[in-house]
Write a structure and sequence with these properties.
Layout: E1 11-13, E2 17-21, H1 24-32, E3 40-46, E4 49-53, H2 57-67, E5 80-81, E6 84-85
Parallel strand pairs: 2-3
Antiparallel strand pairs: 1-2, 3-4, 5-6
């Protein structure tokens, strides 16, 4: 996740958390609902639209569960599993 911290527009936080744009509402909801803020990249386009990137599928599903119903969240998988592109 550290490769995200090399841009001048990206803010680096403790525990491998990187953010850009309007992210405070999403970070607040995740924190209040007990989602561990570590190893993630949050791209905030505005107060109600953005992308959260985490390295593990189970964390993505946990983040989506923590964000709903405050935010409409969908989980998309990118990468490779068992030799198949996702």
């Amino acid at each position: 996740m550290s490769r995200f911290g090399t841009s001048r527009w990206v803010k680096t936080h403790p525990n491998g958390v990187y953010t850009t744009g309007s992210t405070e509402p999403v970070l607040s909801v995740l924190d209040v609902r007990g989602f561990e803020l570590r190893e993630l990249f949050l791209i905030g386009i505005n107060d109600s639209c953005g992308t959260l990137i985490v390295p593990v599928e189970s964390r993505a599903e946990n983040a989506a569960a923590a964000l709903e119903p405050a935010f409409n969240a969908r989980v998309h998988l990118f990468g490779n599993r068992d030799g198949h592109d996702l």
